[in-house]
Amino acid sequence: MIMELHYTLIGDGPTDSALLPILDWLITKNRFIGNIHGEFADLRRYAPRARCNLANKILASLKLYPCDILFIHRDAEREPRANRLREINGAINKIIPLTPMVPSVCIIPIRMTETWLLFDEPAIRKAAGNPNGDIPLSLPRLSRLEGFTRPKEHLRQLLKQASGLSARRLDNFPVSFSLRRISSYIDDFSPLRSLSAFNAVENDLRNILKQHGWT
Length: 215
Prior knowledge:
Elements: E1 3-10, H1 20-29, E2 34-40, H2 43-46, H3 54-64, E3 69-73, H4 81-95, E4 104-107, H5 121-127, H6 151-163, H7 175-181, H8 196-211
Parallel strand pairs: 1-2, 1-3, 3-4
């Protein structure tokens, strides 16, 4: 029998949908064999009021996007990881009396999601629509990623450079759209295993897969 696994990702904003290919890769690499169905909980149209409150966002996501595993993303930015964990767990505790809760995994990158997209130069060039470009791109070393400041701004600038477009044509360059595409061009996310926040997600996911017999 082919196993089916449905998961839902709750993000801080629309660019966090770039995490979906990463989660697919993690689930597969942790010995899940079957069909994976991941969805990004886009509440802008269906539950706009829920977006400003994490507990309401989780509640709306479970209702609109039924799943087996819920991934809850919050950028650490300048907050300690423990603070974000308390925030997420507090929101979950509020909704437990209101709805059946599924296993959940917290995704808390140091700084923000874009940190995890800054390691693959070919993927950035492809996402920019210029895979054969040769304009030098300045990517931070993996060992320095988690301490890298302003990753979103840097990544957006890299995409513009990689596009090879003139300053005039850059006015119409879809930076946010291109940013969301980067992860879809990456086949191997194992270099991110050197990052503490990425390891935390993988460890939590691995435990859930084992506990529920999904490996």
